[in-house]
Amino acid sequence: MSIKQFNGEWVCQQDRVLFRFNTSEDQEFNFWLTRYVLKGLLQGAQQLTVQALEKVHTPQVAQVVQSFQQASVTQQLNFQETFQVAKEKPMGEAPLLVTGLLLNRQGEVVTLKFDLEGGKSVQVQMNPSVLQVMLALLNKLQGIAQWGVGFETEGPTDPNSPSASAPPLMH
Question: Averaged over 46-51, what is the pLDDT?
Answer without folding.
Answer: 84
